[in-house]
Design brief:
It is a single chain. The chain is 55% helix and 17% strand. The protein has a single domain, classed as 2-Layer Sandwich (Beta-Lactamase). It is built from six helices and six strands; from the N terminus they run E-E-H-E-E-E-H-H-H-H-E-H. It comes from Kockovaella imperatae.
Length: 225
């Protein structure tokens, strides 16, 4: 089932809205939410628009639509089709409600009122067996379920990644970037040092000759003037 949902802005990973999780869920998912923040700080407009990231007993699914990231943490056994159909529904309603305000907000969770829609949609997607089979007492009106099943996304082309590999790769890229910056700084420093060494070598080589020449110039000036 869907355990938790958060909506972020792509440009700066600012959280815009989230599900209101109970204390037990919040405690169980603390580590996973922290991981999701690390991942989303690295996303940009050119990142994959949809992806599933496996992390232990949970899978993090995200969908990028119109500069906004829609993320849900689900049980690893929860069907991917349902997860992305769920995120798709959230994206449509969120854009209809707040599309013209997304770029201007500056405070986190500026649209927490969206939790009402998140909660309602989460309840609809709670029982994955009922939804995928198209009926049942907990699913709501049959017409709603029929429409839902028709709208389930084809997720065969959506990539699946591993959280540990993704974070390790990101950390490695960060380290490589830092190392590259350090190497450039060291290279500049060594070039300056090399120029100073060459200048000192020239001075040592030509200083005696210059001194002698200067002495003769002074002697000639004193002798004839």
């Amino acid at each position: 089932m869907v355990r938790s949902t958060t909506i972020f802005r792509v440009s700066d990973a600012l959280p815009l809205a989230a599900s209101v999780d109970d204390e037990n869920t919040e405690k169980a998912l603390t580590e996973y939410k922290q991981q999701s923040k690390l991942v989303f700080r690295r996303l940009n407009a050119n990142s994959e628009p949809a992806c599933s990231i496996e992390s232990g007993q949970y899978t993090l699914h995200y969908l990028i639509v119109d500069k906004v990231i829609y993320m849900c943490i689900c049980d690893s056994s929860y069907p991917r089709k349902l997860a992305f159909s769920y995120l798709d529904e959230l994206s449509k309603e969120f854009q209809n409600s707040y599309g013209d305000k997304i770029d201007s907000v500056t405070r986190p969770y500026a649209f927490m009122g969206f939790d009402t829609f998140i909660s309602k949609t989460t309840r609809l997607y709670r029982d994955s067996r009922t939804l995928t089979q198209g009926g049942g007492p907990t699913a709501g009106p049959s017409s709603q379920l029929d429409q839902l099943n028709e709208n389930l996304k084809d997720v065969t082309r959506i990539m699946t990644k591993n959280m540990e590999d993704l974070l390790w790769r990101g950390d490695s890229l960060d380290r490589m970037s830092h190392l590259s910056t350090s190497l450039r700084a060291e290279s500049v420093k060594y070039r300056k040092a090399a120029r100073n060494i060459n200048l000192q070598a020239l001075l040592r080589k030509w200083a005696p000759v210059g001194g002698i020449g200067f002495f003769f110039i002074l002697f000639a000036w004193w002798r004839f003037f």
